[in-house]
Amino acid sequence: MTTIMQRAIVVMFIVLSWMSQSTAQQKYDLLLKGGHVIDPKNKISAVRDVAIANGKVAAVAAKIDPAEAFKVVDVSGYYVTPGLVDIHVHVYAGTGEQGSYAGDNSVYPDGFTFRAGVTTVADAGCAGWRNFEDFKQRIIDRSKTRVLAFINIVGNGMRGGKFEQDLADMDAKPTAEMALRHKNLIIGVKTAHYAGPEWTPVERAVEAGTLANIPVMVDFGINHAERPLSELVTRKLRPGDIYTHLYSGLRNEQVESGKVNPSLWEGRKRGVIFDVGHGGGSFLWRIAVPAMKEGFVPDSISTDLHIGSMNAGMKDMLNVMDKFLAMGMSVDDVILRSTWNPAREIKREELGHLSPGSVADVAVLRIEKGAFGFVDMHGARLRGTQKLTCELTIREGKVVYDLNGITRPDWDKLPRDYKQTGDARWDAVTPARPVRNP
Ligand SMILES: [Zn+2]
């Protein structure tokens, strides 16, 4: 009897200690091991392990015990960065409207983001207050990418010339009201594509931005002597407002001598933000290269993704970042301007870094060395020797993109009848179905 009871106690002890050990093993859902972490907000640029639990960054440290993680991924040789934040995209697709950024000129975000390491985008004014809620239910609510938005000062948004030139539809009050109604989604006000000589679109956008306490992003439209760039950045915009299409050369960003327009330096001193917004027609080597040599670097790197840029010189976020590497910017600096800086610009300081407790949006990037070429809006090429590739993207703690299967088992080491290989604790691509109890 005693022996049986003793045995039972021993067995119980073993089970309990196994249980507690397995709980310890499951402290983290996912561990990215041995990568070079670049987290500019936290001033980290070094080999670090990154542990993730419950969709959040749980720990970043020189050595984290793999036994503490449910799933371990070797990312040595790669950069591990915050999920990239692209604050200039056009993603109001699906309405069927032709020739419109609230329609066919836009793209669905998930097809372009995760494969480039992007986890957050901000739509740059496709929708105004009249159609924002349609945009929300059609795209924002249905995308795996985190989609935020600059609301257009035009009530109808970017539906084409006849709407975008209509000063009567640029109303600050309903724009600000909509922004305040969707504070969690609307991070700014956009004015764009205006062809007339009036300041009205900029003034109304700033008025709406002031009412809603959010920044304004300006695409300055057609250049007019009546409303010069110098006045925009030194008087009209508030500190924190964003001038996009910095290297387009379309609005005197560069003066006759080849230097950066001195008013941009003055604007920068005032706190105006300068963004790339590459797009299909807003980035020229003959503007960007001299500006970079002069030290006028962008605060944020962004794509201006749409159907006119996706297959032209722009391509994707990483290709735009590559262009800055090719012009001599360091990897750390490129990451800063693609993560923490844009997150701060749109006042979403919970994003763009890997602080423990923050959402686990992560990009794992590789730098390839070789002979590459990068093309501007007029088809001119700059040669480069480095290219960023996205190996792995994690959104809210789960793998959403894995280029070379670095999180995956080899097929020939699996049972003959293998099925879904992932687990919902770390995988959003092929999570195994929950096992049913017999
Ligand atoms: Zn745009």
Quickly give the structural class.
alpha/beta
Distance between the termini: 34 Å
On the 0 to 100 scale, the average pLDDT is 95
Helix content: 10-25%
The coarse overall form would be: globular
Q: Order of SSEs, N→C?
A: HEEEEEEEHEHHEHEHEHEHHHHEEE
What is the number of beta strands? 15
Q: Give the biggest sheet.
A: 8 strands, mixed
Number of helices: 11
Low-confidence residue ranges: 16-24
The percentage of residues in β strands lies in: 15-25%
How much is the radius of gyration in Å? 24 Å
Distinct small molecules: zinc ion
Helix-strand blueprint:
Layout: H1 2-25, E1 28-39, E2 44-53, E3 56-61, E4 69-74, E5 79-82, E6 84-89, E7 118-124, H2 132-138, E8 146-152, H3 161-164, H4 172-181, E9 186-191, H5 200-212, E10 216-218, H6 229-236, E11 242-243, H7 262-270, E12 273-274, H8 285-294, H9 317-326, H10 331-336, H11 340-345, E13 362-375, E14 381-395, E15 398-402
Parallel strand pairs: 1-4, 1-5, 6-7, 7-8, 8-9, 9-10, 10-11, 11-12
Antiparallel strand pairs: 1-2, 2-3, 5-13, 13-14, 14-15
Helix pairs in contact: 4-5, 6-7
The chain binds zinc ion (ZN).
Zinc ion (ZN) binds at residues 88, 90, 124, 219, 277, 279, 304.
Can you describe what's shown?
With 438 residues, the chain is of the alpha/beta class. The chain is built from eleven helices and 15 strands. Strands 1, 2, 3, 4, 5, 13, 14 and 15 form an eight-stranded mixed β-sheet that branches. It has a seven-stranded parallel β-sheet with strand order 6-7-8-9-10-11-12. β2 and β3 form a beta hairpin. α6 packs parallel to α7. About 2% of the residues have low confidence. Zinc ion binds next to loops. The site of zinc ion has 7 residues, from loops.
